Amino acid sequence: MKKMIVSVLAMILLANVCIQENAFSQQIIYKDTQIQQAARSISVKNISGTIDTLVSFTTRHNLSTRNKPDFGIGAAARFIKKSLDRFSKSGVAIADAERIEYRAGGKNTRLGKEITLENIIYTVHGTDKDDNRVIALLAHYDSRSFDNTDSLIFAPGANDNGSGVSALLEIARVLSINPLPVTVKIMFLSGEEHGLLGAAHMAALAKTQGWNLAAVLNNDMIGNSRSSATEISNNTKLRIFSENVPVIETESMRKERVFNSAENDSKSRQLARYIKEIGERYVENLEIKLIYRNDRFGRGGDHTPFAREGFTSVRLCEYHENYDRTHQVVELVNGAEMGDVKKGVDLEYVRKNAAVNLVSVMNMALAPAAPSNVKIDISGLSSSTQLSWSAPEAGKKPAGYYVLVRETDKSNWERKIFVKETSCEIDISKDNYLFAVQSVDSDGHESIAVFATGGNLR
Ligand SMILES: [Zn+2]
After folding, report:
1. For the whole model, what pTM was predicted?
2. pLDDT tens for each residue of 329-370
3. Residue 168 CA, ligand 1 centroid: distance in Å
4. Tens of pLDDT along 81-127?
5. Which residues crowd ion ligand 1, with CB under 5 Å?
6. Distance in Å, CA 264 to ligand 1 centroid
7. What is the whole-number distance in angstroms between the Cα of residue 219 and the centre of ligand 1?
8. Domains of the chain, with CATH numbers?
9. Sign of torsion over alpha carbons 22, 25, 26, 29
10. Is residue 121 within 8 Å of residue 169, measured between CB atoms?
């Protein structure tokens, strides 16, 4: 069976090589039934129920009480923890939910005083002990209204970020019955609305504990499908923000980037392209748009503290935002409804966006680790391109590799060439194309792409 799949893969790829000009109409898409079924099991009803419960706590403001059973951020944290505990109990994967408390704020901070906040982390442990990769999904569960010092006013946060939390709870449920080779950490974070505090705490922890964090997917506002003012209704587009130039870039990294023309090929950009390809492979009626910036103007998200620690991080976000709803007081203004109430959440859109996360994580976790040391031989002038790379050191062995090719003025990889060895020669000029390599297993699960470089400036 496996052999057959490899040869099918080889045929598909050979076909792609031969008919590159019209590849789209001929493209054969292979789908893994386990991933497909998992994606199909994401429940709109569960998403809806989670948002209702979160909204029922009136506010999840970071300065709100942690002691009341049905009001404030503490009630929300306990609801999330309880749901996760239920999944670890009923599921087949080894999974646990932990509360991680941290001190935040102080006199001259946005919080105005020092307080204790908590993140809830759900770890679905990987089954392959040789593979220590970790994939992280993030969503903040705190909320705010217009006045960010008011911890009592109704701040439903149905979309910001009830949408992200409800999606991640569904993914936690589905992964608890679909164990994966690689560990997945699903993080429900506090402190976002007062300066990305919970994410900063987790990113620092990941760094000091030396996690092999392969990818970080932040979900923040993934449920609104109607724009304010322009009134565009569309739930068929999702944005992925990824940084162009890494925020951690050093002078030697800068030189290497310039030398290799890698402005559009940061690790985050490769992750964004990966999510686009896998997301669109499994989720219908959704176009995933790569946004060539880390986040929106003047606004941030929980992926940024992870990027600052050097991790490969992206933000998934709705394509159209509604400024009458986000961070607004819930009220009627000239007959128009303001505020982040559930009515403004498109549940089917949340379902699709949750599925994008799930299929990307599953495909990545089922794939071998990415290759390393992916190099273009630039020692001589020739009309062909020689590439070489090293097999991943740990985890499952790849059945082969995909060499990805695109023209320098294209956004997405255009060709995928299957190669069994750790080197190849392609009869096109290295000066006219960009290249990357993915590891792939016998079932067609591919790793994130690693950009091919000609080394550093010499
Ligand atoms: Zn938010």
Report:
1. 0.94
2. 999 998 888 999 999 999 999 999 999 999 999 999 999 999
3. 14
4. 999 999 999 999 999 999 999 999 999 999 999 999 999 999 999 99
5. 160-161, 220
6. 26
7. 9
8. 2-30+369-451 (2.60.40.10), 35-366 (3.40.630.10)
9. positive
10. no
